[in-house]
Design a protein that fits this description.
The structure holds two protein chains of two kinds. Chain A is of the alpha/beta class. The termini of chain A are far apart. Among the domains of chain B are: 1-81, Ubiquitin-like (UB roll), CATH 3.10.20.740; 318-379 and 542-710, 3-Layer(aba) Sandwich (Rossmann fold); 393-532, Dimethylsulfoxide Reductase, domain 2 (3-Layer(aba) Sandwich); 740-835, Barwin-like endoglucanases (Beta Barrel), CATH 2.40.40.20. Chain B contains 24 helices and 35 strands. The longest helix of chain B has 16 residues, at 83-98. The chains are: A alpha/beta, B alpha/beta. Chain A binds chain B through residues 304, 306, 321, 323, 325-326, 328, 472-481, 483-488, 491, 508, 511-512, 515, 518-521, 526, and chain B through 47-52, 55, 63-66, 69-71, 88, 91-92, 95-96, 98-99, 153-155, 157, 178-179, 181, 197-198, 200-203, 205-206.
């Protein structure tokens, strides 16, 4: 304990030295998102340049700060100047900026997007504050507070930012008081269902037994969702501290992080984090001199979607096939190895240190009644500013999509939340607050944080089919409604996208969807019809167009689309004729070409070449035509 | 805390019912006569909640819980048959049916079809569509009917999975599978074999061994427990698939090994169509091995069964009447000297058969020359084995044991109910050790697998015995690291409260078997372990009790026991003095054995040697050509006679007649009684086995009818001295001329002298006879492929064998499973192998 206090003091000193010392600091966002955008290449070049010119500077790899569309991000903090952020880095651009800055003293403000005023320096009037950028202005960053600021592999950075203060406070309170704080704060499960966290904890705490477990659920399976991965990659210790707090509250002996095996970077950071915790006495016997002993291990899962379901997750951790079972008994009573077990989402756990450090009242100031605190979302799809965001609950949907996301490029059609278990909301619901009840009332769910914005180029039937195919393929096969029912739903939807369905198929789809929803064993099956059922509710007309008229207004359903050449625009360049794999296009040079619809397989090759080739005339059009009802 | 009451009251379908706490809604409903349809639920298995047929409405719950998985609670209000529930069930059932290819479950012609058996064909046939082997016994069919589903609104999805027929005994048509998971749970929860699992996801979800292994590779025991619980026609017994429902059932004792499992024989039109485990609490607890489950039916129904007595001379055979047969035997017997007359019996016969047989020899033939083929099986360890067998602890000792040591036991295809008992005990946390030179069922999940070199097994047991006695082991032939393991095992056994040593059949034919068994006995003494031998011959104990050995009188008394002789003389009304006892079955292996008359009752005389002047062969199946049988008599199988067996625990068990024997075949005891009467002997007027048992009860305690029904364990002790043949020589190490070690063992899977492989199709794959097992490495080195023939030559031995490449075989050793180990003495021995010329 004494050593730990000493380490905390040293960590703060080191952190201060980094930020107000005489050495410049270069930050590079190197979470998976940044790396995918090329952050490591940028980092490599920066390192080479620094070496080449013998420049003394700290190069810190930080996590993800949120705006995906700006990746890779490089920030430079010169001594006595604010940290300036440069977006969409390439190695060449980075080289230029570094050389300008360090060799010529020119901060290249033309390439900068924002500055951070956090370290007390006055900035230049030319740059906005990073958090005043439209994407960040409405955000409230509690869970993500350290993301993009600290080196996730350095526990001292976390300690310097009040790390592990939450667990220390918890030790002062005692386990039951911790549960009470969580109750007073009104924390609800961030995995999507919004079950009050303290209730689950109380069940587990009250359950008899010496051995209890806490599992962190990082089986992030929704297509397009990356909140949990980003959080662990950018600030692993906040999740690990959350696990400690949860374990202490319920009287657990062991914590496990169940994480998709393909999250390599997150796993590496968890493992190094766990090693550092052990070194500091934050794991093991009598943590920080308390009577609490705890251990954490990482369990990699193969990524089956159903393993996000609690009982399937437990089966998977036990080494069995990830297959859910009926409840009761609930995991809080009989879970992992038949011992009382709590499973909390990454974000739920990541919130706990804040709450324990600052108190329930502090937390309750964010959000609205019964929906306290913040929620992270992966804002993706047809939106101008995609990224990882954190907003207070109760914020209107419109504010997220238009304010933070900048709205879609084309006309807005719908927003999909909750991934394959969630639903689609149309424009009329944009003003509902983002709350568990309001979202459910509108027919969707809060979900774990996937938020996909769709514009007029998206076909709703195709979208429903996409999600249903996903859940169909991920069904474990244990119960018939899910395994067979979703398959028949897929068939019905497929027929619709091919113009082969009858109008009564819509009713059948709805009835079957309701059966699957009500009769399935686990959450996967019970929510699988949601994307279909909510779109049937909000976009019924589009279904009817497909079923009755064979018409796809977004011109997405291949079978319902035909390709033509606009004779006014065709310049007879023959490029389309050359790329057509079935020789469906005929025409002599410099004369108007035609597409033989019998031979056309709708591969889109002609459209692509005509649309984008400099010589072509952008003459290929595709459209869906309404079938005349007999 | 809420006080838990032992009874609770709830309302189901407006009916107030009470139930014990802990019961599920389904249990309570069924106890009160309320029927809720189920498909995945099975009484032997944990609730699954997968089929969703048993969904119910519970007041206060927004979702529809499954009755099988939801515990009933006090004050609960349950509705099981509301309109909504019925509709959902029908909807879910339609989903099942839409991927179940037998859509004629909802065929328009269904009713007419049942009544008139009409078939949609051009010709006027009246067979009906037999679309599925489970027709009429299918649970999906029954549920479809009870829910009144007559139409499927969904398109039918034909999965088009090829039917799996390549494995022995049962086929699998996963197109009919509804993924209820009963087979998986049976395999994982009850058998604890973990062979079957769910595989793949979504539309491809299917049952089978994981990682695309075959059932054989995955360690399937072919116990057929999965087949028994399959509600559809997916898993089907090859032999029974199209037989339909049985007319009646008969409970009897399995005849394939000393465990003595209770089986339920399914009988249809006086023919046995199947055998299922009986729910017996003492022995097999509702489980069987592949032999009891599948081999029974095929063995007793073989079309080659002998139906009439026949005479053979100069390779010509002709049927004779019983009377003619008896007259011929009587004539030959009258002209044979008692000292050159002998009867060979097998220890598969019932106690009654054996008792009458020895009485026949002693009273009619005035000789003690009756012997069991078991003597040939155990070789030099015969006497030691019987002594060990006599200290058998009951099977329940395994379940209560805190440590178990298996020596030379593989429970995969035989005694597999013992394997289940061990796995159950292991789940409870007992220590489990196994000693075996080959990979086997427990080699990977035992705490310690001691794997001696072939032929070194007895040294390991001796070392264990010495360690357990507190002595040091300095045997340099055992590597130091192994000695550490041996010490661990010895310590664990010594420290255990109730250790059990299970002796298998693996090393019993080795020359070292006497030393091996003696070491086992010593070890058991030192650690205070119970020993369970469970002999391969199901009625070995019965043959001791009935006195069917030259050294033993009924009641397991030595032939020299004057008091017993006197008692028998008065019981049988004849003099028993001066009877010869100079012969035993070992003599048949000698070239100088000149028998005038050999009577083989349910036994196959040893190969080639010792041909008698006249041989009577009395069995279920015709003799092998080498037997030179002069007269062949047909006998009833164990399913065709009443009687009793004594299992390896010394428990007397009933055998019941389920069907009539084929042709004019008779039970062995009946044939011998008739023969004796034909020869004018007194004391053979038995007409029913009960009468024989009555007489036996006078000299053998525990054989009264009431005592047999009590199924207790016989209170007897074996203290006779048996003659053993000790013709073994020490094993020589491999040399450059003979680089491999051949170890052979007698086919353990025999019945009445025949290897099961001879008459049961599927057993040829699982436990073939007369093949040479070779490791993949050795096969590669010798350029051999599976099924090639090899020429094996040792010091005193030359033979051609087909080879089978098996993963289990250790490198450098070859294993031959043959009818008689005597052929390959010394055993094990160094041999050379070359590919045989085609």
């Amino acid at each position: 304990m004494k050593n730990f206090k000493q380490r905390e003091i040293e960590a703060v000193r080191e952190w201060k030295a980094l930020h107000s010392g005489s050495t410049p600091v270069i930050y590079i966002g190197a979470a998976t998102c940044g790396i995918a955008a090329g952050a490591l290449d940028v980092s490599e070049r920066v390192r080479a340049i620094l070496e080449k010119h013998d420049i003394e500077a700290h190069l810190v790899h930080v996590g993800c700060i949120g705006p995906c569309y700006l990746e890779p991000l490089m920030d430079i903090a010169m001594p006595g100047a604010p940290r300036i952020s440069y977006a969409n880095m390439t190695p060449d651009l980075a080289e230029r900026i570094i050389e300008n800055q360090f060799l010529r003293g020119d901060p290249s403000l033309d390439f900068a997007i924002a500055q951070f005023s956090t370290n007390g320096h006055d900035g230049t009037a030319r740059l906005p504050d990073f958090f005043d950028l439209p994407m960040l202005k409405s955000q409230v960053r509690l869970v993500l507070r350290n993301c993009g600021f600290i080196d996730p592999e350095n526990i001292d950075h976390y300690l310097a930012n009040d790390g592990y203060r939450g667990i220390q406070h918890a030790f002062e309170l005692g386990p039951q008081a911790v549960i009470d704080v969580v109750r007073d704060a009104g924390v609800r499960g961030r995995g999507g269902a919004g079950f009050p966290t303290h209730k689950k904890w109380q069940f587990c705490r009250n359950a008899p037994g010496e051995v209890k477990y806490v599992i962190c659920n990082c089986s992030e399976g929704d297509p397009g969702a990356f909140m949990n991965r980003s959080l662990i990659e950018s600030d692993p210790h906040c999740v690990l501290e959350g696990l400690l707090i949860a374990g202490y509250a319920i009287g657990a002996t062991e914590g496990k992080v169940y994480i998709n095996a393909d999250y390599r970077l997150a796993i590496a950071r968890l493992e190094s984090g766990i090693a550092q915790m052990k070194e500091l006495g934050l794991l093991g016997e009598n943590i920080l001199g308390s009577d609490f002993s705890f251990d954490i291990s990482v369990k990699e899962g193969a990524g089956a979607f159903v393993c996000g379901e609690e009982t399937a997750l437990i089966a998977s951790v036990e080494g069995r096939r990830g297959m859910p079972r009926s409840r009761p008994p609930f995991p809080a009573v009989s879970g992992l190895h038949a011992k009382p077990t709590i499973i909390n989402n990454v974000e739920t756990l990541g919130t706990l240190p804040n709450i324990l450090r600052n108190g329930a009242d502090w937390y309750r100031q964010f959000g609205v009644k019964n929906n306290h605190g913040t929620k992270t979302f992966s804002l993706t799809g047809k939106v101008r500013r995609p990224g990882l965001i954190e907003v207070p609950l109760g914020i209107p949907l419109r504010e997220i999509i238009y304010g933070i996301g900048g709205g879609p490029w084309k006309a807005f059609k719908a927003v999909q939340t909750g991934g394959p278990s969630g639903g689609c909301l149309s424009e009329e619901y944009l003003d509902i607050p983002v709350e568990y009840e309001a979202m459910a009332g509108a027919g969707s769910i809060m979900g774990s944080g996937g938020m996909i914005v769709l514009d007029e180029d998206t076909c709703i039937v195709d979208l429903a089919l996409y999600f249903l195919r996903f859940t169909q393929a991920e069904s474990c096969g244990k119960c018939a409604p899910c395994r067979v029912g979703t398959w028949h739903m897929v068939t019905l939807l497929e027929n619709m996208t091919r113009g082969q369905s009858k109008p009564e198929d819509i009713t059948r789809l709805q009835v079957l969807g309701e059966t699957v929803k009500r009769a399935s064993l686990c959450g996967l099956g019970q929510t699988a019809p949601n994307p279909t059922l909510t779109t049937l509710r909000h976009f019924r007309a589009e279904y009817l167009e497909h079923a009755r008229e064979g018409y796809c207004s977004a011109a997405v359903c291949k079978e319902l689309v035909t390709y033509h050449i606009d004779p006014q625009r065709c310049n007879g360049c023959q490029l389309c004729r050359d790329v057509c794999p079935t020789n469906a296009i005929t025409g002599v040079r410099s004369e108007v070409h035609t597409i033989d619809l019998e031979r056309c397989i709708k591969c889109r090759a002609c459209y692509e070449v005509c649309r984008y080739h400099p010589q072509a005339g952008n003459a290929v059009v595709y459209e869906s035509a309404r079938r005349v009802m007999a | 805390m809420k006080q838990h009451t032992t009874r609770m009251t709830l309302t189901i379908d407006n009916k107030t019912v009470t139930a014990d706490t802990g019961a599920s809604i389904l249990d309570v409903a069924r106890q009160n006569g309320i029927d809720i349809p189920t498909l995945c639920w099975h009484e032997q298995l944990s609730p699954h909640g997968g089929c969703r047929m048993c969904i119910v409405e519970v007041e206060g719950l927004s979702h529809f819980p499954t009755a099988c998985t939801t515990p009933a609670a006090d004050g609960m209000i349950v509705r099981t048959h509301t309109a909504q529930i019925r509709e959902m069930r029908a909807e879910i059932l339609q989903l099942f049916l839409s991927e179940h290819t037998a859509s004629c479950l909802v065929c328009d012609e269904q009713e007419e079809c049942r009544e008139y058996m009409s078939t949609v064909r051009k010709a006027g046939v009246t067979t009906g569509c037999r679309y599925c082997p489970k027709d009429g016994q299918c649970e999906l069919q029954a549920v479809t009917e009870s829910l009144g589903v007559r139409d499927i609104i969904y398109p039918i999805y034909y999965r088009g999975i090829p039917v799996e027929t390549e494995d022995p005994f049962y086929d699998r048509d996963y197109n009919l599978c509804i993924l209820c998971g009963r087979c998986v749970r049976m395999c994982q929860e009850v058998r604890l074999a973990d062979v079957l699992a769910y595989k793949h996801r979504g539309r491809d979800a299917i049952i089978g061994p994981a990682f695309a292994r075959t059932h054989l590779e995955a360690g399937c025991e072919f116990c057929g427990a999965c087949v028994s619980v399959c509600p559809t026609g997916t898993l089907r017994e090859k032999a029974r698939a199209w037989e339909g429902a049985p007319d009646r059932e008969e409970i009897t004792t399995c005849t394939f090994c000393g465990v003595g499992c209770q089986v339920r024989l399914l009988v249809k039109e006086d023919r046995i169509i199947g055998s299922l485990p009986a729910d017996d609490p003492t022995v097999n607890q509702g489980q069987l091995c592949v032999k009891g489950r599948f081999c029974n039916t095929e063995l007793v129904n073989g079309h080659q069964r002998i139906r009439h007595p026949y005479r053979r001379e100069n390779d010509i055979a002709w049927d004779v009447s019983w009377d003619a047969a008896f007259e011929l035997i009587a004539e030959k017997l009258r002209s044979s000297a008692p000292e050159r007359t002998g009867m060979l019996v097998s220890s598969n016969l019932t106690n009654e058969d054996l008792y009458v047989a020895q009485k026949f020899m002693r009273v009619v033939m005035k000789t003690h020359h009756i012997d069991s083929t078991a003597r040939l099986f155990y070789g030099s360890g015969f006497s030691a084995y019987l002594t060990l067998m006599d200290r058998a602890v009951p099977l329940s000792a395994i379940r209560d044991a805190s440590a178990v040591l298996m020596v030379g036991l593989d429970t995969r295809f035989s005694r597999s109910v013992v394997g289940v008992a061990i796995r159950t005990a292991m789940k409870r946390g007992i220590r489990m050790f196994t000693l075996h030179s080959r990979e086997h069922t427990f080699s990977l999940n035992a705490d310690v697998w001691l794997q001696p070199e072939v032929g070194e097994e007895y040294r390991y047991v001796e070392a264990l015995a010495r360690l357990a006695a507190g002595e040091d082991v300095t045997d340099r032939s055992i590597p130091a690291d192994i000695r550490v393991h041996l010490a661990d095992v010895a310590r664990a056994l010594s420290e255990s409260d109730s250790p059990v040593i299970l002796v298998g059949a693996e090393f019993l034919q080795y020359d070292s078997s006497r030393a091996f068994l003696a070491a086992v006995a010593q070890l058991a003494d030192h650690v205070g372990a119970g020993v369970l031998t469970l002999p391969a011959q199901n009625n070995l104990y019965g043959s001791l009790l009935s006195g069917s050995f030259p050294e033993l009188l009924p009641g397991m008394r030595p032939t020299a026991d004057a008091a017993r002789l006197q008692k028998l003389e008065s019981l049988w009304g004849t003099s028993l003095t001066g009877l010869t006892d100079a012969w035993n079955a070992d003599h048949l292996l000698r070239d100088d054995c000149a028998m005038q008359f050999l009577y083989a009752v349910g036994a196959l005389p040893p190969v080639h040697r010792g041909a008698a002047t006249f041989t009577v062969f009395q069995n279920m199946y015709p003799p092998e050509p080498y037997c030179s049988a002069d007269l062949v008599l047909p006998t009833a199988a164990a399913t065709e006679t009443d009687g009793s067996f004594v299992n390896g625990e010394r428990r007397v068990q009933r055998v019941r007649r389920a069907v009539a024997p084929p042709g004019i075949a008779l039970p062995d005891w009946d044939i011998l009684c008739r023969l004796a009467r034909h020869m004018g002997a007194e004391g053979f007027a038995f007409t029913r086995p009960e009468e024989i048992r009555e007489e036996m009860a006078q000299v053998i305690p525990g054989f009264g009818e009431a005592e047999i029904d009590a199924r207790g364990i016989l209170p007897l002790a074996f203290d006779a001295v048996m003659h053993v043949s000790g013709n073994g020589t020490a094993q020589r190490p491999p040399d450059s001329d003979h680089p491999l070690i051949l170890h052979s063992s007698v086919v353990e899977h025999t019945h009445r002298g025949f290897p099961l492989a001879a008459w049961v199709e599927g057993s040829r794959i699982l436990f073939p006879e007369g093949v040479l097992d070779i490791s993949a490495e050795d096969a590669r080195a010798l350029g051999l492929r599976d099924g090639d023939s090899v020429h094996v030559s040792g010091a005193s031995f030359e033979e051609i064998y087909p080879v089978r490449i098996v993963r289990q075989q250790p490198r450098g050793a070859l294993h031959a499973s043959i009818l008689e180990s005597a052929l390959t003495h010394p055993n094990p021995q160094p041999v050379s192998v070359r590919k045989a010329d085609v």
